[in-house]
Amino acid sequence: AYDAAGNVSVQSASVNGTTQIAISVSTGSTTYYVSTTGNDSNPGTQSLPWRNIAYATCAAAYNCPIQTSNPNRLKAGDTLYIRGGTYVEHGILFANSGTLGNPITVKSFPGETAVIDGGYTVASGRNPVFEIDGVHYITLDSLTIRRGSTINIALAYNRATTNITIQNSDIKEFIFFDNSANIYVGTSGAN
Prior knowledge:
Radius of gyration: 19 Å
Order of helices and strands: EEEHEEEEEEEEEEEE
Number of helices: 1
Largest sheet: 5 strands, parallel
């Protein structure tokens, strides 16, 4: 059995005078939240969400659009729920990879529509909304992603990237220039 945090719960029982114990195993996963009314100084909980998606995914050393030292940035098994609304962000990078069976998941909050808008109306170089490069086991789910400059989602632009899942999402309105695409898969090796 699992508790509300997704951890295996401890159970014990006595059978014919012998105590049997099931050992607790923590998955170590955490659920975080982003809202248009949030603040990046918040802890990222449902009642005190962060404001920016990049604050949850990135770190200062990764040339992120938001220079952050967030110690709680997403790691394997974590889920980021994005509350309904429009987020004008681009260059969203991932500092960490998920693992097999424990991907990093970024998704709309159930019943709500999160729009991640790169904010471009004319091409301005390669500025995707999401840049998934050199990381693995990332899932984008139930998102509307639009108006990146030349690309909405860049995969494996410079470094090998594997096991990326993009599902139930509306990816549209990229700002066209030479070699433009909604999803660009680089030659660095993507799966």
